[in-house]
Structures are given as structure tokens and as C-alpha cells.
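Format notes (please read before filing issues)

Several people have asked whether sequences and C-alpha cells are stored in separate files. They are not. Every record keeps both together, in the order shown below: the sequence lines, then the C-alpha cell lines. Line labels are part of the format and must not be stripped during preprocessing.
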Amino acid sequence: MKRALIILVCLASLAHAAETIEVANLADLAKAAAANDQEIRMRPGIYRMADYLTEDVLKEIDRCVDRTLDRPPVPMMTFRGSRNQFDFRGVTIEIDTTLYAKVPQGGYTRCLIIAGNDNRFSGLTLRNTGPNRGSNGNILSVQGDDNVLEDVHVHVHGSFPWGYGDLLGKGGPNLVRLEKQSGIQVIGSRTLLKRCKVFSRAFGHCFYIQGGEGSRLEDCYAEGSVRKTSDMLADTSGPAFDQGFRSVYTNRDGRFVITPAYTKSLSEDGF
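Then the structure lines:
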């Protein structure tokens, strides 16, 4: 009888472990993402971050910002839980660029932060909508350790300036104020990115590693845009026109100007 009871308890534990939580909105996703040891399936569809960022949510985000840091990370949503498996196949989360001004200011905007450890994310698509502006942050930041991202696609849109690469500056000195926008940032250790893609139509990084150790990218893809400097010089308005087509870099003549007959990458880098 005792042995039978042990078997029943083990079977019940296995059944519980295999249970999948289904979520159908971003508020329920955020709630589930704060807990541990779950299998979470999001119902396929398009979800707008604007619908999630209510006044109450924005107040809670502001309350959690670490003001002891000079430039603290400021998320729209944080995955704090550990040892979770997220099935996002068929899911797109749209992030309008006008939301950058609504989150607490003074830090680095990280739209989604994976703060927990040993999680697995599969099939998520993140896409910017809205006007051509950036947050000087990124769309997805992996801060915890031992996280795996598979088939995650990020479509980055929106930065200022856009269309000139780093010719007007990329950190200092700058000829204009910068609103850069990057894709996927890795800070935690032993992060694995498999078949992840970043499509950048903004000035910023596609993939970038800024900490931790032992991270790996497998079969990942970064895509940006290029533009001919002769086309830049044909502008009749915009930041380069307003600056008299000056550049932060010297050409072969020693002049700080945009030089014709070159092709310039419009993103900061791919990897």
C-alpha cells in the first residue's frame, strides 16, 4: 500500500509538471512570467503593448526602477520567473515607438527584460510600429543566466536620425541629438540564441553582448539597410541638410563632410 501511494504521488507530480498555462493577453503573460517552473503557452495572435501599459502598470514600473543607478534599465515588461518554458509560436507583440515617452525617463529603455534564469523562449515575434523615433535602448534584453531563445524574430523600426548611419555621430561627439534603437542585448551568462533574427531599420545594434560569459549564437541572422552618400547629399530637408552635410568624420581631404560615391550602413552593427 505504501509503495502504491508513492507511485500515485509521483504520477500526480508528473501530471502537474506537464500542465500548460495558456494566456491570451499581455497582462496575464506578465503575471505568469513572474512565477517559476511553468509551461506557458500564449494564444497565437497580435498583441499591442499599448493595451498593456495602463496607468497602474506604468506606476508599478516606476516604483520598481532602481534609482540608485545613474542610467537604470527601464522595462515595459519583465520576465522575473525562472525555469519556465514559453511557447510563443504564432505570437507577435507590437511596440509602438510613441510608448518610449510614456515609461519612466532617465534610464535605458529595455522593452522586454528577461531577468530570471534557466528559461526557454520559442517562436516570439517583436515588431515596432509608429513614428521614426528611438529610445536609446533596445527591444529585448537577456539579463538572467542560462536562458535559451529559439526562433525569436525582432523587427526594429524607429531611430533619430535615420538614413545616415553614424555620419552624424553615434555617442560623442554628435552633430544632432541621438535616439538610437537596438535589437537583442545579452548581459547574462551562458545565454543561447538559436535561429534568432533581427531585422533592423534603425540606427543601433542588432545583436550585442555586454556582459556575462559563455554565451553563444547559433544560426542567427542580422539584417540592416544601406544608402548611398550621393543620395544623402541630394536631401532637401532633414538633419544632414540642416547641418550643411557635415559629418563627425574627416574625409581624405581632412574635411568633416559627407563624401559622395560611398555606400553607408544605416545600422550601427550586426553582431
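For reference, the curators noted about this record: The helical segments are 2-17, 26-33, 49-52, 55-64, 229-233, 239-242. Residues 16-225 form one domain.
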